[in-house]
């Protein structure tokens, strides 16, 4: 399958979503069944001790490795601005 075929299959699966500033997108230990594409805004990931360790911004994808490897979230993700996201639910048929 070439890239265009892949895109035409994935695009209809993306769902728009909005998150307010300071809201938690996910918590450490949550099931990782979604991949997030940041259309607008930024998020920061935090360690268990509350230390920020990475920032994602517009155009970035996050949560993909946890979702594809079927691992729980390894950090807390907080919106540092208002967010517009596209969410892809990582169902088993998608990652096979």
What does this protein look like?
This protein is an alpha+beta fold. It has one domain (3-95): Jelly Rolls (Sandwich), CATH 2.60.120.10. It has helices at residues 3-10, 64-69, 92-95; strands at residues 15-19, 24-26, 34-40, 42-46, 52-57, 61-62, 76-79, 83-89. The strands form two sheets. A four-stranded antiparallel β-sheet has the order 1-8-3-6. Strands 2-7-4-5 form a four-stranded antiparallel β-sheet, with no helix packed on it. A hairpin with a 5-residue loop joins β4 (42-46) and β5 (52-57). The longest helix has 8 residues, at 3-10. The two termini are 14 Å apart. The model has no long low-confidence stretch (mean pLDDT 89).
Condensed summary:
The chain is an alpha+beta fold and 96 residues long. The chain has three helices and eight strands, in the order αββββββαββα. The protein has one domain: Jelly Rolls (Sandwich), CATH 2.60.120.
Jot down its keywords.
single chain; Jelly Rolls; 4-stranded antiparallel sheet; alpha+beta; 96 residues; 19% helix
What layout of secondary structure does this protein have?
Blueprint: H1 3-10, E1 15-19, E2 24-26, E3 34-40, E4 42-46, E5 52-57, E6 61-62, H2 64-69, E7 76-79, E8 83-89, H3 92-95
Antiparallel strand pairs: 1-8, 2-7, 3-6, 3-8, 4-5, 4-7
């Amino acid at each position: 399958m070439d890239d265009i075929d892949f895109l035409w299959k994935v695009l209809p699966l993306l769902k728009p979503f909005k998150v307010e500033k300071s809201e938690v997108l996910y918590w450490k230990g949550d099931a990782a069944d979604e991949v997030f594409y940041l259309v607008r805004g930024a998020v920061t990931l935090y360690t268990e001790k509350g230390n920020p360790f990475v920032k994602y911004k517009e155009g970035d994808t996050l949560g993909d490795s946890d979702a594809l490897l079927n691992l729980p979230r390894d950090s807390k993700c907080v919106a540092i601005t208002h967010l517009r996201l596209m969410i892809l639910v990582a169902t088993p048929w998608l990652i096979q």
